[in-house]
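Second opinion, please. Pick holes in both lines of this record:
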Amino acid sequence: MAFDVAIIGSGIVGAACAAALSRENLSVVVIDGNEIASGSTAAGMGHIVVMDD
């Protein structure tokens, strides 16, 4: 089986990237050694903050 993109990590950021790429008709596989959304997402929500000084 072949994929266009492999995403390592199934947290909120990995899942969002997979969703966006699949909407662009790319074949995506998500790889994670743990349960879905059990790593950094559970601890930090994958929160990205933009700061403007």
In short: The longest strand covers residues 5-8.
